[in-house]
Amino acid sequence: SVVQARATGYLEKLHVRATLDRVRAGQPFAELYVPDWVAAQEEYLAVRRIAPGDAALAAAARQRLLLAGMSEAQVARVEAAGAVQPRVTLVAPSSGVVAELVAREGMTVSAGMMLARINGLASVWALAELPESQAALVRPGSQVEARSPGVPGSVFRGSVQALLPEVSPATRTLKARVQFANPEGRLVPGLFVTMQFMDTRAKKALLVPTEAVIQ
């Protein structure tokens, strides 16, 4: 997911300091001062005070707040406080790690500017290299078990999402993209895993370990 600024303003405080910091969904990410919202909020509050019975005029002033980039929750806070709220707190839209951090305290941001990119780790992909002779035995949906020396004693179960249409000319292998559930976040990007594909052949066959074959 991406954290974006919805209006032009000044980034006064950044709650995330560096890339690879872990964040939770809804956690405060940054605080912006947005001067363009001040006039629109003052107009809306003035309409509510001067003409409390004019619903159409109040709705038009409220709509201008939304068009300026404010969310429904921010407008509700202005209504509840009865005062101008020139600062907005941006929150992390999803849980994960900060893969890219563009924002810095004190910088000026514009509407639509990307401040950070968050990679979720609730589920992860792993790329397996399959020999050409065995690629025909694997298809989307095939069950896979994975183990990693970085997470000793744990077995991760997943399934093949896709067989990528590309063969490595050096190793003559085909890549399979496998998805694993990762609720505890133990599998991290860059980790090596050893994958075992469950046998998908219809008939039983005699299997021998590769170590037992003498060329």
Sum up the structure in keywords:
215 residues; alpha+beta; 4-stranded antiparallel β-sheet
Secondary structure layout:
Blueprint lengths: L1 E3 L4 E6 L7 E2 L4 E6 L2 H15 L4 H13 L4 H10 L5 E5 L4 E6 L6 E2 L4 E6 L3 E9 H4 L7 E6 L2 E17 L5 E9 L12 E4 L18
Helix pairs in contact: 1-2
Largest sheet: 5 strands, antiparallel
What is the ordering of alpha helices and beta strands?
Answer: EEEEHHHEEEEEHEEEE
Tell me the quaternary state: single chain
Stretches with pLDDT under 50, minimum 5 residues: none
According to DSSP, the number of beta strands is: 13
Tell me, rounded to a whole number, the average pLDDT: 87
Strand arrangement, major sheet = 9-12-11-10-13
Termini separation: 50 Å
Share of helical residues: 10-25%
Q: Class by helix and strand content? A: alpha+beta
Rg, alpha carbons: 26 Å
3D shape: elongated
Q: What is the beta-strand fraction?
A: 35-45%
| Count of discrete alpha- or pi-helical segments spanning 4 or more residues | 4
